Amino acid sequence: MANLGLSPETTMGLTAFVALTGSQLLQDNDTVTMTPFTRNVTSFATNDTSTEGGAAVWNGDSTIRDTAMKAVYLLVSSLGLVGNALVVAVLLSFKNLREKLTNMFIIHQSILDFLTALFLLLTTLLPYDGRGYYTVGDDMYCRMWVSRLPLWFFIHMSTYNLVLLTIERYFSVVHPILHKLSFTRAKALIGVGCIWALGIIYDIMTSTLTAKIEDGQCKKFLYPDPVTQQAVGVFSICLNYFIPIIILIYCYSRMAWSLHLKISPSDAHPAVGNASQAQKKDSLHKRGLRNIIKTLAIVATCFILCLSWNQIFFFLYQLGLFDYTMLQSNFYHFSVVAMFANCCTNPFIYTAKYEQFQKAIKTLFCQRLLKRPDTHSHSENTVTSVA
């Protein structure tokens, strides 16, 4: 920190900020070489009991910490696998649900979160073994697996898909005529293809190309100079954090205001009595529209809460503003768990708040378990769709 020309007071302030905030995970037992303005570290699964730079590092046996973190990762990945598989299975079981653009994006989101959970499980069960690497095959293994490329790819893809889903809902609520004329299934697939291309290019550039074998060890995040590392840090946090958050906040704010103007208090419940069939249908539509927006707003809020800590932590690390021992702190590990937990939160949100999903679960499971064949009069399952 002294090399940055900062006073002791400023240095202490920045260190305290990092300790209280806390994107890329540098998992335990990884071998990493830092750029010239930081330290060279070959392993940070050590029994470090110091508190260097004001950071509250892990006190105690690192084996206990590693075992605890492994158990948490296994729990999160298991919940993510089961929960997201359930969402995909339920929405695909009903033709009128899976054909809606919003649900198409939700299905895609659940598939991405499922794959995130899968690779979290695999990287937990098959960690970096620390052996020597010398062959071309070892180099590919280092760049593709030790760099955690699949895991980071699907985390970033989940972010981009959430933004795409939000933009689709924004036009549906704020600019409904334009949405009806312009948003088609084909264009939605093109949008999905674009975010896949973005994710592949970004993660190859930032993960694969910055990992290589040196002296028989797989070393990650190798940059030619500090300026390049700082530039990558700024670009990464803008692409994966600030830009998505700005879009989410703007879109949901506009949607909330638009719904406030469109929906009267009487629309909160379906019309009854002498109301015409058209009025009842319109009331149901508005209620369903409000429900899906509220559900997705909660999804976006959880995304921000889960990813903020680790994104800020990684950004400050890229700028070289704290000592590498900060990656041993308890708060750093909390930020990692929070980020990974995002892959298993959405199924709980859909179950608690998304009315169409709730009805679909009841129709698909509860009524079948009770053996009520009269609930399925068609060969293709259907659920009342109002949004």
Provide a descriptive summary of the structure in words:
The chain is mainly alpha-helical. It has a single domain, classed as Rhodopsin 7-helix transmembrane proteins (Rhopdopsin 7-helix transmembrane proteins), CATH 1.20.1070. It contains twelve helices and two strands; from the N terminus they run ααααααααββαααα. It has helices spanning 8-21, 62-92, 95-98, 101-125, 136-146, 149-174, 176-182, 185-208, 226-262, 277-318, 330-353, 355-369, and strands spanning 212-214, 217-219. The chain has a two-stranded antiparallel ribbon. Helix 2 packs parallel to helix 11. The longest helix has 42 residues, at 277-318. The protein is globular and about 75 Å long.
What sequence of helices (H) and strands (E) makes up the elements?
Answer: HHHHHHHHEEHHHH
Q: How is the main sheet built?
A: 2 strands, antiparallel
In CATH, what is the homologous superfamily? Rhodopsin 7-helix transmembrane proteins
What's the CATH class, please?
Mainly Alpha
Per the principal axes of the C-alpha atoms, what is the gross shape? globular
Measure the end-to-end span.
Answer: 54 Å
According to CATH, the fold-level topology is: Rhopdopsin 7-helix transmembrane proteins
CATH architecture: Up-down Bundle
| Strand content bin | under 5%
Radius of gyration: 24 Å
Number of helices: 12
Count of individual domains: 1
Average pLDDT across residues? 76
List the uncertain runs. Answer: 1-60, 374-379
* Largest beta sheet: strand ordering: 1-2
Number of strands: 2
Question: What is the helical fraction, as a range of percent?
Answer: 55-70%
| Structural class assignment | mainly alpha
